[in-house]
Fold each of these.
Amino acid sequence: MLFKKISISLRLPFLVLSYVAFTLLAHGQEKKPLTLPETLKLANKNSLDAFKAKRQYGAGFWEYRSFKARLLPKVDLDLQPFTYNRSFIKRYDPENNIDVYRQQQNLDTYSQLSLSQNIMATGATVYVNSSFNRLVNYGDNTIENFNTTPIRIGLSQPLMAFNELKWGNKTADLKYEKAKRDYLYQEQNLNLKAISLFFQWALASTKVTIATENKKNAIRLYEIGKKRYPLGSIERDDLLNLELETFTADTGLAEAEQQLQEVVSDLKLFLDVENLSGFTPELPEMIPNLKIKLEKAKELARQNNPELLDIDIKKIHAERDLDRAVRGNRFDLSINASYGLNQQANDFAAAYSNFLDQQMVAIQFSMPLLDWGERKGNIKTARMNKEVADIEIKQAENDIDRQILQTVNNFNLQEELVTVALKTRDISRESYDITEKRFLSGKIDLLRLLSARKAWQTASEGYIQSLQSYWEYYFGVQRLTLYNFMDEASLGHDFEKLLED
């Protein structure tokens, strides 16, 4: 069954690549069929679109990791091992009550090791640090001085300020999940592009096949006509029309071959393969007895579609911006406090003994008194933007529901249309064969024959286009729902492996 054949083909990682390499080495042998699942596999492995989708996921992953790192303790080392200064500086001379320039020469060494932790719930920062400073002044007498703080514990707590970390945490997991779904969504876009190029290739190949057969038939009929004309079996105008058909067939074949070359060139670039001359497209069949239930598709779209997840993120962002504007219109109050041990001395050992307390408490307060309506305008702007976001959210939900409805209905109907197109192709071919025999027997004129040939060619092309629509509708539903209806499973991927590629 096609269902099993496609599922197996999509799970063979290196089948197509080995297949291509073997065919390229066996140049000149009979062309091998290239199936649609194999083409999709090549596209998802080699195309630039696939590489771009991987990198976009990678950017989303590292953005998520970077934010989560902000919630973990940080250790920093600040080090100034050597700062030498020799210059003239302005100093006050108290004896003469004037400013004078005096030479200064010193060597400064500084280091600090700190540990800090952000508190997401309150927006506070707790820190512990230890610092060491050595200063040497050169002059008539060299003076060495040490300033040490073995430990200092501090807290910085904004009381009324906007808490960016809390709002960022609300969207961090959603953004990462969206990055995963965006990758799966882009995979389906890639599949749809590959399907379009594959069926363009199949259609162009079919046109070349038909044009080649038309040329052979035109030459054969013209040769028969030249033999029958002296016998009076056909008229002069029919013979001229048969000769004209040979030229028309030549032109049609040349145009079909040129179109095939252009399509193959586009497909090679997309699949990033060197040669497709050893392959011929093999048309897929339909998925047996598959009908997609509309309500199930809608429910899956609500669960999996990245656009709906993006709607949730936009809603949180709108609420965040409003909260920022409201808090910016209030007074700002923050507390900074720290406690530590400190000492300074002229030698290293004394600097680390008999420590003194080091205490600091600071309360900062600011309040807008007159801003001519600036902050009030910011609040109204944020509220208007939130209302606009609410409307856009509803519009996006309605748009996705409409897409699901149209695509599912089109897919469910397309099976019947493909079946009709296939029957039409077979009947038109049989009709052409019968018409050709009747033309050769002299029962119908050339116009009837050409009309039958045109109907057969149109039906052959129509079948391929109908089959293309069938698969595009299927993968269109799969893109909107991120669900494989053939295997009845949600789409997934080894995302850790993506970061290794």
Amino acid sequence: MSRSIKKGPYVDEKLLKKIKKLGIDTKAVIKTWARACTITPEMVGFTFGVHNGKEHIPVRVAEDMVGHKLGEFSSTTKFVRHGGKMQKEQEQKAKTKEVEKAKQAK
């Protein structure tokens, strides 16, 4: 759900100050906890360390990202795998195929 046109997009003021202070050609990572901040054209080319709840994930902002939120590019959950008997069988088959390929390569 987007903000009203009257209010405009949410952009963190501290983040804008950091961008203006650094300059365009800086390769430093700008750490931020503002996941709800909307990406503006001034942010293109910078690398932001977006906090995911545990660590800062580096996000390099490109032109395609303008209008999206910073939090969209820093996932907060980590997919491990689906469980169950079928998944274990598939993994075992894949592992045996890899072992066979390695033996044939030697």
Amino acid sequence: MPFYVYILLCTDGSFYTGYTKNIHARTRLHASGKGARYTKMHEPEKVAYVELFNSRVEAMKREREIKKMTHQQKLDLVGSQNANE
């Protein structure tokens, strides 16, 4: 079963990074204020970035890598995916 690593852009300009098996259900939880403590305090605006992985272990590793990035590095990552669309 595939796993997704995603970055949410919040209304205050911050980012939230997470992983899930069901991206649509997870983003609905965030939007309703039940997804994570961070997104309760920083309202999510949109899904800004998504990566697909074959295993939970791979997704968790990538999530940790992204969480260690600076805000600018995350902006660049989000921009790189948007440039490819």
